[in-house]
Write a structure and sequence with these properties.
With about 400 residues, this protein is of the alpha/beta class. The chain folds into 3 domains: about 70 residues, no CATH class; about 100 residues, Beta-Lactamase, CATH 3.30.450.370; about 230 residues, Rossmann fold (3-Layer(aba) Sandwich), CATH 3.40.50. The protein is built from 13 helices and 15 strands. Strand 14 and strand 15 form a beta hairpin. It is elongated. The N terminus is likely disordered.
């Protein structure tokens, strides 16, 4: 009897080849029709050699995924508790579940098969990747974010990184229940979002910035016009009927021009937005976002990579300088006038994602930006492999003008 590993290799490719020979490639085949042909081929193989029933089921889905979906990656994509998928060449696939990275026991049949899957993923969003342009960002039909790097840049074969997102956006109530944030902090942020405070979310890679931004967006009043701007569409804004979603575009081989985050922010300002939500600020577009916040578009939201709230201020200064040479004092004045609240997230050593700090940007004093800490997360030990802690209130909100203008107040 052939081992399971043998069936996962040779038999998948042989049955796939036989199925392709039987299909009429001049027309589209639905899933049931394709599965019927696959079943017939597996039965034919089973007449010559013994194939256990559980291996037949596995063969059936592997052949189907290789023909219609994303081959060995499809099984991982179908599992809701997997958050990341990493491919390091055709023979090495890893995935992340509950914060732990594990090796996948399956692999692509060849480098060429992996390259076909990459072209399928990139081409579905009208993006291009080849040796001349070996790096591409795209997304899958379910919203998962994909980054691809090809040789010669990737030395050990094509590298694919897939960030999966939940089918249904995580709401703030779920975050409170999961102890990612306290109810007091959640209620406080809800009030600020409704009152139109400009909020910037910072954190490291995988700290949950996009998830938290989605959760905050549920507090946006339903009668407002919201425009979202992203490199790859990931946000899942719920309950807003007057919603415009925009995505950047890379330059195409046929001469189409690139459309950047900066282009989209400038365009958004002409579209009568109540709020502008930028998925992530990475460079010179920081200046455009600050100018939007400074020209009456209160309640705008965005995220950025940083290790702390103070570090996010420094990164904003650097990103503005990437787009325009301005005096540092002028940049800081723009930040103070534009951003009201900084929210910092982190991924702790127990792999949990927590809100670590909420700070108010207070004022510019002697050329330095002064922050007013409002809430901070304090660790209180460990139990059952999980960190325990509490969110301590460290200060009072100073600038309440937007609250008063909205007829609201926060509990002191």
């Amino acid at each position: 009897m052939i081992s399971a590993a043998g069936w996962r290799g040779y038999s998948v490719e042989q049955i796939r080849k036989n199925v392709l020979e039987q299909l009429d490639m001049t027309r589209e085949h639905d899933e049931n029709e394709l599965l019927a042909v696959i079943d017939e081929e597996i039965c034919r193989e089973a007449r010559e050699r013994v194939i256990p029933l559980n291996w037949r089921r596995e063969l059936r889905m592997q052949v189907f995924h290789s023909l219609r979906k994303l081959d060995v990656l499809q099984e991982l994509l179908n599992q809701d508790d997997i958050t990341e998928i990493m491919v390091n060449g055709a023979e090495h696939v890893f995935y992340e579940r509950k914060g732990e990275i594990q090796a996948w026991d399956k692999k692509f049949s060849s480098k060429e098969k992996l390259e076909d899957i990459i072209q399928q993923m990139v081409g579905s969003q009208n993006r291009v990747i080849n040796e001349a342009e070996p790096i591409a960002d795209t997304r899958l039909s379910d919203g998962s974010r994909v980054n691809v790097v090809l040789p010669p840049v990737a030395l050990n074969g094509p590298a694919v990184s897939i960030r999966k997102f939940p089918k249904h956006p995580i709401l703030m109530e779920q975050m409170v229940t999961g102890e990612s944030i306290s109810r007091e902090c959640a209620v406080f942020l809800k009030t600020l979002v409704q009152a139109g405070y400009n909020i910037f979310i910072s954190g490291g890679t995988g700290s949950g910035k996009t998830t938290f931004l989605n959760a905050l967006s549920e507090f946006i009043p339903k009668n407002e016009r919201v425009i979202t701007i992203e490199d790859s569409a990931e946000l899942q804004i719920q309950g807003i009927s007057n919603l415009v979603q925009m995505e950047t575009r890379c330059a195409g081989p046929e001469g189409t021009l690139a459309i950047t985050i900066r282009d989209l922010i400038r365009t958004a300002l002409r579209m009568r937005p109540d709020r502008i939500v930028v998925g992530e600020i990475r460079g010179a577009e920081c200046l455009d976002m600050l100018q939007a916040m400074n020209t009456g578009h209160d309640g705008s939201l965005s995220t950025g990579h940083a290790n702390s709230c103070q570090d996010m201020i420094s990164r904003m200064e650097t990103m503005v300088l990437m787009g325009m040479e301005l005096p540092l004092l002028a940049i800081r004045a723009q930040i103070v006038a534009g951003v009201d609240i900084l929210v910092h997230l982190g991924r702790l050593r127990d792999r949990s994602r927590r809100l670590l700090a909420i700070m108010e940007i207070d004022r510019l004093e002697e050329g330095e930006i002064r922050l007013n800490p409002l809430y901070e997360f304090e660790e209180m030990g460990e139990g059952d492999g999980k960190l325990r802690g509490t969110w301590r209130k460290t200060g009072q909100l100073i600038h309440k003008g937007k609250l008063y203008a909205a007829g609201m107040e926060v509990e002191e």
